[in-house]
TrEMBL record:
Pfam families: DJ-1_PfpI. Keywords: Repeat. Belongs to the peptidase C56 family. The keyword rRNA-binding does not apply. GO terms for cellular component: cytoplasm. GO terms for biological process: glyoxal metabolic process. Residues 42-74 have a biased composition (Low complexity). This is Protein DJ-1 C. Residues 89-253, 293-454 form the DJ-1/PfpI domain. Signal peptide: none annotated. Residues 41-83 are annotated as: Disordered. PANTHER family: PROTEIN DJ-1 HOMOLOG C, PROTEIN/NUCLEIC ACID DEGLYCASE DJ-1-RELATED.
């Protein structure tokens, strides 16, 4: 088995936090429609362009599963009929040291939510990898175990040096090249089109997009500056801020437009009403030190998009973020089956003072966070000392139960918003009331994290982080 492992350097993996994408203007990221197919447009005028895929039949992915149904007629006689159920769609998402955590997690999360069987495979000799910003993720398997498998989609996340390490993995190269040769779906986001797919000669005659800092590395005749580009079997996108579009494009290609639209709405991606991004009340200055310290407590069942996005965005802004597990282990299993490794246990983290405590959401994780006596004490001390705290998605309910939303304006996920007795504002993605900050969660959590950056450091730094993420951000 060891001889089948991908080829990686024998030297220690490069330090992930040493690389930062520069601040460059993004293309618009507002989603006005989730339809990605048969919509040909000029590459310079729209956020999404598509070229028609080949009608050539693709290889059967796996044997269909027979099912038996027994029915009883009006005369009492039973009849048995057999039908064939389609196998689940199978997706490969490889990860490496330096992989962009947001791009990987969002891709896996969205496709699993749509019903795909997503395999997260490490191209390193071990399952646990340190992704961008120091986030530690645990893969489901090693890439060597995937070499004989057939996938409906191979989706490569970006990030540096992650894209280079994906490129240097021979097993992954063979899997992806075979995917392209057999006309099955494959794609890459951010740095991966230029750094990984281009050296493998998988971009020939295909319009391709990528991160603004790397777009000049792509063949000029085929490079397009759109947030999403579908060109036959190849799908490419620009960065963490367009990762939802990237993942939903595969959902539509695998399951259809209606499923993609339904998933998009459940992720709070519906921007048709053009709701206000932020609302602030009782404005006060958030006075903190030169390097603010933030605690993000996590538990089994927490929402991985919210955890990873908050941590990634804040660390890009040079915030000292501590991820603390309330479980007995630093390793937690998030809501869509992604394994995240915390920095420490909550008991070890409790000895420090934090400028801000942020609770991620998801109801299954909320119950566990609420039961943590240590976390409850930390939140009460945070409030008594007049320090900042916040919550996203369903977790404002935790603050409500502990009396920390009294006389405060807040927002929350629609599923719990009506259960809060304080003044809930439905017209904004992020609400700030003094030293409380809340968000609807999921796809709005990037705006939540950027709002924190703005309050801590000012508009200029928030805008710079947004540009690197390829997120549309207000000019003032």
């Amino acid at each position: 088995m060891e001889s089948m492992l991908c080829l990686v350097s024998s030297a220690p993996p490069p330090k992930v936090s040493s690389f930062r994408l520069s601040s460059l203007p993004p293309a618009p990221t507002k989603i006005s429609s989730l339809s990605f197919t048969c919509r040909c447009a000029s590459s310079s005028s729209g956020t999404t362009t598509t070229t028609k895929r080949s009608s050539k039949p693709t290889k059967t992915l796996s044997p269909k599963i027979p099912t038996t149904t027994t029915t009883t007629g009006t005369d009492g006689a039973q009849e048995t009929s057999s039908s064939v159920a389609a196998p689940p769609k199978k997706v490969l998402v490889p990860i490496a040291f330096g992989t962009d955590a947001m791009e990987a997690v969002i891709t896996v999360y969205v496709l699993r939510r749509a019903g795909a069987e997503v395999i997260v495979a490490s191209v390193e000799p071990q399952l646990e990898i340190e992704a961008s910003g120091g986030t530690r993720l645990v893969a489901d398997t090693l890439i060597s175990s995937c070499s004989g498998e057939v996938f409906d989609v191979v989706a490569l996340p970006g990030g540096m040096p992650g894209s280079a390490r994906l490129r240097d993995c021979e097993v992954l190269r063979k899997i992806t090249c075979t995917q392209a040769e057999e006309k099955r779906l494959y794609g890459a986001i951010s740095t991966a089109p230029a750094i990984t797919l281009l050296p493998w000669d998988l971009l020939t005659y295909k319009k391709t997009t990528g991160h603004p800092q790397f777009i000049d590395m792509l063949p000029k005749v085929w490079a397009v500056e759109t947030n999403l580009q579908v060109s036959k079997e190849l799908t490419t996108s620009r960065g963490p801020g367009t990762a939802f579009q990237f993942a939903l494009s595969f959902v539509e290609q695998l399951f259809g437009q209606s499923v993609a639209e339904e998933i998009g709405k459940s992720l709070l991606l519906d921007t048709s009403d053009d709701r206000q991004r932020y609302k602030e009340f009782n404005t006060v200055e958030w006075s903190v030190g030169n390097k603010p310290r933030v605690l993000v407590p996590v538990a089994n069942g927490c929402d991985e998009i919210e955890v990873v996005t908050i941590v990634d965005v804040l660390r890009r802004a040079k915030v000292d973020v501590v991820v603390a597990s309330i479980e007995k282990s630093v390793k937690i299993l998030a809501s869509q089956g992604i394994q995240i490794v915390a920095d420490k246990l909550i008991g070890d983290a409790a000895g420090s003072v934090y400028d801000l405590i942020i609770l991620p959401g998801e109801i299954s994780g909320d119950g566990r966070l609420h039961k943590s006596r240590i976390l409850k004490k930390l939140l009460q001390e945070q409030d008594t000392a007049g320090r900042i705290y916040g919550a996203v998605c369903s977790s404002p309910a935790i603050l409500h139960k502990q009396g920390l939303l009294k006389d405060k304006r807040a927002t929350a996920h629609p599923s719990v918003a009506t259960k809060l007795t304080n003044e809930v504002l439905d017209g904004a993605k992020v609400v700030i009331d003094g030293k409380l900050i809340t968000s609807k969660g999921l796809a709005t959590v990037t705006h939540f994290a950027l709002a924190i950056v703005k309050k801590l450091f000012g508009h200029a730094r928030a805008k710079g982080v947004a540009r690197a993420l390829v997120v549309e951000y207000p000019s003032s």
